[in-house]
Design a protein that fits this description.
Elements (H helix, E strand, L loop, with lengths): L4 H43 L12 E5 L4 H12 L3 E6 L2 H15 L4 E5 L5 H15 L5 E4 L14 H29 L3 E5 L12 H23 L5 E7 L23 H13 L4 E4 L4 H9 L2 H10 L11 H4 L2
Parallel strand pairs: 1-2, 1-4, 2-3, 4-5, 5-6, 6-7
Helix pairs in contact: 2-7, 4-5, 5-6
Bound molecules: nicotinamide-adenine-dinucleotide.
Keywords: Lipid metabolism, Membrane, NADP, Oxidoreductase, Transmembrane, Transmembrane helix
InterPro entries: NAD(P)-bd_dom_sf, SDR_fam
Family: Belongs to the short-chain dehydrogenases/reductases (SDR) family.
């Protein structure tokens, strides 16, 4: 305490001098600036992945739709961090290629892959049970990543198309999470990750079924988080809401102001999501500028928000959509 005394006296003197010169208003301004800077440095550290990260070594990470795109990319990144990976997908050829690539790079039993249609509860049950048997470990991190997009306006879409989107992008989350949650809660350990979309927070024409499904996924994550909070559970949740990513899924979709709203690269998006999981972040909107769209929606009348969305070209971004099937 004696050692600290000179510093405390100096701080008191500085405070007095500052108060005499600037008064109460100056103090409030300085406090606001300090808090702002503190918040800013925290955000910078968070977005660059410089916060404290948890270890995933030997943890069992189960990724749906991991045969391509960001699911495949995340699987490789987590495997390199020492995790045991289970990948499920309906595309068994691509799935096997990812599993083989990981096992070739990191050793034979690092990755396990099995067919699973996430919209079918029995298929989910089987895949989870087989992956637990393979790795001899219950699931530590579940990443609900599998997704589809039709890119059709409401009246051009079919009943089957709409049902498929909702079943895979939203309902499936119930099947996978119900399989692992009880065990996670019992162990007071685990992490449920929802790969939603900015389309789960903002409506876009041409994406009625997709937005409905992703708004559902966002609601699923948020409600689950509150259920876990009420039980003081240490099971974590993370909801990811990205803008377009160049995986091929949204080929043809356009950003009117690419400098402001850039189409994200698969590499960047996957690294950011992995960091968010390791840093136990709850909600990630990327790129960060899209937080302003949410703020405008929350704070201004709907007509202001609608006009902003049109001005920034958000509502027309799907007009030239081709999607993966029609792309190379
Ligand atoms: N690409 C983007 O612009 C973008 C933007 C925001 C959110 N997302 C979301 O990110 C996630 C991954 O997208 P991506 O860009 O990597 O797409 P992707 O098409 O490369 O990957 C999706 C994977 O899900 C698999 N899949 C489809 N139906 C399935 C089913 N019934 N059961 C199991 N697997 C199934 C596909 O075979 C594919 O391997 C999706 O949920 C998507 O909605 C993508």
């Amino acid at each position: 305490m004696d050692k600290l005394q000179p510093y405390l006296t100096k701080a008191q003197d500085l405070y007095k001098k500052f108060y005499e010169k600037r008064g109460k208003k100056g103090l409030v301004q300085a406090a606001a600036l300090g808090l702002g800077l503190l918040f800013l440095q925290y955000q910078v550290r968070k977005y660059n992945g410089w916060l404290k990260k948890k270890s995933v070594a030997n943890q069992h990470i189960f990724i749906t739709g991991g045969a391509s795109g960001i699911g495949r990319n995340m699987a490789k990144r987590f495997a390199r961090l020492g995790a045991k990976i289970s990948i499920v997908d309906v595309n068994t050829t691509a799935l096997q290629e990812v599993v083989d690539a990981i096992n070739k790079e990191l050793g034979n039993k690092t990755a396990f892959g099995v067919y699973c249609d996430v919209s079918d509860p029995q298929s989910v049950k089987n895949a989870i049970s087989e992956s637990i048997t393979f790795h001899n470990r219950s699931i530590d991190i579940l990443i609900n990543n599998a997704g589809v997009v039709s890119g059709r306006q409401l009246l051009q879409n079919s009943e089957a198309g709409i049902t498929k989107t909702i079943n895979i992008n939203t309902t499936a989350h119930h099947w996978t999470v119900r399989e692992v949650l009880a065990n996670m809660m019992e162990n007071n350990h685990g992490h449920i990750v929802t790969i939603a979309s900015i389309a789960g927070l903002v409506g876009v024409r041409g994406l009625v079924d997709y937005c409905a499904s992703k708004f559902g996924a966002v609601g699923f994550d948020e409600s689950l988080r509150f259920e876990l909070r009420a039980k003081k559970s240490k099971v974590r949740t993370t909801c990811i809401c990205p803008y377009f990513i160049n995986t091929g899924m949204f080929d043809g979709a356009k950003s009117r102001f690419p400098l402001l709203f850039p189409i994200l690269s698969e590499e960047y998006a996957s690294q950011r999501i992995v960091n968010a999981i390791l840093q136990n972040e709850t909600v990630v909107i990327m790129p960060v500028i899209l937080n302003f769209a949410i703020m405008i929606k929350a704070c201004f009348p709907t007509c202001v928000y609608d006009n902003m969305m049109e001005l920034f070209g958000v509502s027309e971004s799907m007009d030239h959509f081709k999607g993966r099937a029609q792309s190379k």
